[in-house]
Structures are given as structure tokens and as C-alpha cells.
Write a structure and sequence with these properties.
Helices cover 42% and strands 24% of the residues. It is an alpha+beta fold. It comes from Desulfofundulus thermobenzoicus.
């Protein structure tokens, strides 16, 4: 029965998820994320986030593709010839150069922001994703992170439910 399915049934076990140290530079995080993606034809597949670990190997947050793109947008802006020539373009270029030393911990989504319990239903996960405007949720069991559930995992089950 699809509607009562638990998050634990569709989650990705945490040991199968890509990780990065919280003090790693963004360049390292980008490389890890890129290595978790693969291409089939013109379509890219893979995770859109990386689990962030502290110095004791505890999960402390998520670094999402969206967070990386927001931060890296300044890189593209700083190379734009039109902006460099404008009277205010220096502002964006300066801001990018200030961000060059950013570490993963500076832009990650803290673990406490949004999580789900392993025994919660997939529907509850969907509601939480919509409420918190996130695409993945760390899955907890007895306060320990045991996996990740993504919108695609939830979407597949909701599709089954709607199909009858």
C-alpha cells in the first residue's frame, strides 16, 4: 500500500551518500558533487546535495547544488566584461573575491533546519519538503542520521498513489 509507506523504505542510506568536510573549500565540494553525477546521453543523474561532516565525522548539514550555484554566481559576474566596465560592476567583482575563501560550513544548510524521522510516512516527507522549501531531507532514527530522502524518491511514490 503506497499511502502508508515509510521514509525508511525509500531513503538512500547515509553511507551511500556523498560527503564533504565542513571546513573544506568550495572547490573541493564542487569536485565531490561533480564526481557523484553521471551522464547518460544528454541527461545528468546523481545527487543534488552533499552530506556535510564535522571534524568528528558527525553529520552537521547539507550542501546543496542551489547553495553552490548562488555562491558561484559571483564568479560568473566577476568575469563579465560589461559589468567590469560599469560604474557598479566593481561591487560584484569585489564581493566575489571576498568570497573566494568561503568554506563549506559558511554556506551549508544546518542539519537542524529540516529533518524527517525514518518511520514517518512519505506523505509527511512531501509536506515537510514543501513547507521548508527543500529538495532533500536527512532521515533520523533515535536522533542519528541514517539516510537521505529526496524529492524524486517522494515523487515516485506519490505518482504511484495518484495512478491508483
Amino acid at each position: 500500500m503506497t499511502e502508508g509507506r515509510k521514509v525508511r523504505e525509500v531513503m538512500i542510506p547515509i553511507h551511500d551518500y556523498s560527503t564533504v568536510r565542513w571546513d573544506a573549500p568550495l572547490k573541493e565540494a564542487v569536485e565531490i558533487l561533480r564526481s557523484s553525477l553521471h551522464r547518460e546521453g544528454r541527461v545528468w543523474y546523481g545527487f543534488h546535495s552533499i552530506a556535510v561532516l564535522d571534524g568528528n565525522q558527525h553529520l552537521v548539514g547539507l550542501l546543496t547544488l542551489r547553495s553552490l550555484l548562488k555562491t558561484l554566481q559571483f564568479h560568473a559576474i566577476s568575469r563579465d566584461a560589461w559589468l567590469k566596465g560599469s560604474s557598479w560592476g566593481w561591487y560584484f567583482a569585489h564581493r566575489y573575491h571576498r568570497q573566494a575563501g568561503i568554506r563549506v560550513k559558511d554556506i551549508m544548510r544546518p542539519l537542524a533546519l529540516a529533518t524527517i524521522q525514518a518511520d514517518d510516512t512519505v506523505f509527511q516527507a512531501a509536506v515537510k519538503m514543501i513547507t521548508h522549501r527543500v529538495n532533500s531531507l536527512p532521515v533520523l532514527e533515535k536522533r542519528k542520521v541514517v539516510g537521505m530522502v529526496r524529492t524524486i524518491d517522494v515523487f515516485n511514490l506519490i505518482g504511484e498513489l495518484l495512478a491508483g
